[in-house]
Amino acid sequence: MKTTFWDAAANRRSLLRTAAALPAAAALAGGALGGTAAAAADTPGLPDFAPVPPAATGPELNDAGYFVGRIDGHLYWVTDGFYQAMFLSTREGVVLVDAPPTIGHNLLRAIAEVTRANGRPAKVTHLVHSHSHADHVGASSIFGKDVVRIGHAECRRLLLRAADPNRPAPTVTFEDRYTLHVGGERLELAYHGPNHSPDNIFIHAPEHRTLMVVDILYPGWVPFKNLAVSQDIPAWLRAQDIAMGYPWRTLVGGHLGRLGVRADGDLQCAYMADLEASTRAAMNLDPTPYFDKYGPQGNSWAIFKTYLDAVAAQAAAPVAAKYTGVLAAADVFTLDNAAALVESFRIDAGTLGPFGTRP
What we know:
- By secondary structure, the protein is α/β, with parallel strands linked by helices.
- 35% of the residues lie in helices and 16% in strands.
- It has helices at 22-28, 37-41, 106-118, 134-137, 153-162, 225-229, 233-245, 262-282, 288-294, 300-323, 330-347, and strands at 67-72, 75-79, 84-90, 93-97, 124-128, 148-152, 172-174, 177-182, 185-190, 202-205, 210-212, 250-252.
- It has a 7-stranded mixed β-sheet.
- Strand 3 (84-90) and strand 4 (93-97) form a beta hairpin.
- The longest helix has 24 residues, at 300-323.
């Protein structure tokens, strides 16, 4: 049987049962992905998590560590279980969307596998950047200098500033919309404002009823830590609705091991609605114990930290309990996602709680 990245997750139990789990959850952030399954089993102090629901897992990887499959027609996707890319095989060459470094040269192997079978050119002629982040386009350089790189104007600005040789800046840019026609195939690129990053775009293949939008929707899973470490939380929340407004049947979310369907988007939106409601309610938590303990010490940051951590823990607990076993990793990242909402409600929405204007 071929190995998948998810074998090591098969027997994990729930971490977030009460607010008392908060210190363990905070300690966890540094090391869950490193090392082999055997090494992890021998490392003391690592927490256990709930099993990954079977519906969240994707196809098995091949011996080289990737899976490539057809989405529709000449549209394909590649995954290593952590990241995803998408490509169109055209009469004139290949249009690739994103180049995650964890997939790396397996992108070339996957493309060669497909084009050998369909008789179309294997050369990547165009590379679309969903956004500038290195974890999604950090293998761009392996496609050489001649590939036409396409991205939002802000993507070019950010990559020129980064000056990362692994991420050459796009040479073709746009502000709002751009239609890419290559070899009888079409992609519609659109910018709906900042969300996860200032330059994140929506890539729509209308003939194939497929949308690729990265770090917004996570089919079968809760969003990554701190709501995908997004730079604009209100806009990230709106981006979910924008994505659901497209007429897609298949979603390429940029992460994890399987494609998405409409029901996956609906489920994440329900999770986020529950988490928003729970977080708003938790922001009524009585701050008195935190002021009483740390106020006399003059330790303002201790007041903020312990109070805000307690609010996030109270907000996360019922949502994690509801979605554990329904969405993968609900017990892993719901606490961090609640914490991101707490800060956004304070900073973006003006819900300041005990730190509001003094009467």
